[in-house]
Write a structure and sequence with these properties.
This protein is of the alpha/beta class. Strand 1, helix 3 and strand 2 form a beta-alpha-beta unit. The N terminus is likely disordered.
């Protein structure tokens, strides 16, 4: 016999509350909102989230739709507005495009953290920034585009290329699991111009690896310096997936941003 919705809801345990409710429960520290990029999913933040949670930070990991910069930013901003108290927004890769726009009109966002992430100015695109300096090998690692029923196309990294392309410093079995779970990005999103960038008014922090094959380290350095990053950390030999391979260092920088951006406690 099927339970009615009311009966089902009543049967849920108290600890089954949403991540947003859990984030609201702690006012002492800002909530850390993690935004994954293309060819990843929310689970890519697992260890970072565990480290932050262990230090008392409420954490929410966004299921980034990867459909378009403005739409994804609006989605993320809606989630931010549902959280009581200050927020630190963290973006990986394409997720940097999203947080730079999502935070623009959200006063509760106190700091931004770019993890191997794009930090665009208005009018810039993913494709344009990725090609600004030589070094990316992403184009040769992509599978043929998948055409959707509406005619739009989306992109995946070939599973046999994923380890070396995206996560070369992650153990091969973990990289293989990441390849299977990767979320595709809409091709149109890579050519959609960015809107106003919140890094121009918010303290921003940057961390990236010197062995990134998706985004050339030169462009990551260029964007970090252009944004006058409060702190810029370059990890020797780190791949594009440094939130998985160097979770401790990523979490440490997020905590620095949280302390910098948080309001003074009475």
């Amino acid at each position: 016999m099927l339970l009615g919705w009311a009966s089902f809801s009543a049967a849920l345990p108290v600890q089954a509350a949403s991540p947003i409710a859990a984030a609201v429960s702690s006012a002492a520290r800002p909530t850390i909102v993690l935004v994954h990029g293309a060819f990843a999913d929310s689970s890519s933040w697992t260890v970072v989230a565990q480290l932050l949670s262990a230090h008392g930070y409420p954490v929410v990991s966004v299921a980034n739709p990867l459909r378009g910069v403005q739409a994804d930013a609006a989605y993320t901003a809606s989630l931010v507005r549902s959280i009581a108290g200050p927020v630190v927004l963290v973006g990986h890769s394409y997720g940097g495009m999203v947080i730079a726009r999502a935070a623009q009109d959200e006063a509760q966002v106190r700091a931004l953290v770019f993890v191997a992430a794009l930090a665009p100015e208005a009018g810039e695109t993913v494709a344009g920034l990725a090609g600004k300096f030589p070094g990316s090998t992403l184009g040769t690692a992509l599978a043929d585009p998948v055409t959707l029923p509406d005619g739009a196309q989306e992109l995946y990294i070939r599973q046999d290329k994923y380890w070396q392309q995206f996560a070369a410093d992650v153990a091969e079995p973990q990289a293989a699991a990441m390849a299977v779970a990767q979320r595709p990005v809409a091709l149109a999103a890579l050519n959609e111009p960015a809107g106003a960038a919140a890094w121009q008014r918010l303290p921003s922090f940057f961390v990236y690896g010197t062995a990134d094959r998706n985004l050339p380290p030169a462009v990551l350095r260029y964007m970090a310096e252009r944004a006058h990053g409060r702190e810029i950390r370059e990890i020797p030999g780190a791949s594009h997936a440094l939130m998985a391979s160097h979770a401790q260092q990523v979490a440490e920088l997020i905590e620095v941003a949280a302390r910098t951006g948080a309001p003074a406690q009475p």
